[in-house]
C-alpha cells in the first residue's frame, strides 16, 4: 500500500500560486522546498540590503527601514559594550590601587620584620610570571 501511495502522481501544493508541476508523492516534499512558486521560500533582497525573507514578503520590503533597524540594533549593542568596558576599566583601576596598597603594607611589615622579605620576593616573582 505504501509503495502504491508513494508512486501516486500529485499536483504541487503551490498550484494556486502558478506551479504546474505534477510529482510523485514521495518527491513532493523535496519539490516543495525548491518550488519557485512557494510563497514562503526564502529569497534574498536584491535591492541592496541582502536580507533573506519569505518570497511573499518581498513586495512590501523596505531596505531603508530594515537597514535603519540594523543600525539601531548595532548602536544599542555598541553602547552596551562601551558601558561594560568602562565598568571593567573602573574595576581594573580599583584592583591596581588595591595591589599598590597591599605592596605598601608588605613593605611596612617587612621593615618591621626582616624575615618576611622572602615572602615579598616570592610575591613579586609570581607577579612577573603572571
From TrEMBL:
Signal peptide (UniProt feature, chain positions): none
Keyword Coiled coil: yes
Top-level taxon of the source organism: Eukaryota
Gene Ontology MF terms in the entry: enzyme binding; ubiquitin protein ligase activity; zinc ion binding
One record GO biological process: regulation of canonical NF-kappaB signal transduction
One Pfam family linked to the record: USP8_interact
Keywords on record: Coiled coil, Metal-binding, Zinc, Zinc-finger
Coiled-coil residues: 64-98
Domain SIAH-type: 7-67
Name of the protein this chain belongs to: RNF41 isoform 5
Lineage: Eukaryota, Metazoa, Chordata, Craniata, Vertebrata
Amino acid at each position: 500500500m505504501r509503495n502504491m501511495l508513494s508512486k501516486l502522481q500529485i499536483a504541487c501544493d503551490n498550484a494556486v500560486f502558478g506551479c504546474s508541476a505534477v510529482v510523485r508523492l514521495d518527491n513532493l516534499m523535496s519539490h516543495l522546498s525548491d518550488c519557485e512558486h512557494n510563497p514562503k521560500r526564502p529569497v534574498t533582497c536584491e535591492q541592496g540590503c541582502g536580507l533573506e525573507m519569505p518570497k511573499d514578503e518581498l513586495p512590501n520590503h523596505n531596505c531603508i527601514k530594515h537597514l535603519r533597524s540594523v543600525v539601531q540594533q548595532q548602536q544599542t549593542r555598541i553602547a552596551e559594550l562601551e558601558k561594560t568596558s568602562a565598568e571593567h576599566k573602573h574595576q581594573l583601576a580599583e584592583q591596581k590601587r588595591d595591589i599598590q596598597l597591599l605592596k605598601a603594607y608588605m613593605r611596612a611589615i617587612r621593615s618591621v620584620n626582616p624575615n618576611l622579605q622572602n615572602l615579598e620576593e616570592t610575591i613579586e616573582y609570581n607577579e612577573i610570571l603572571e
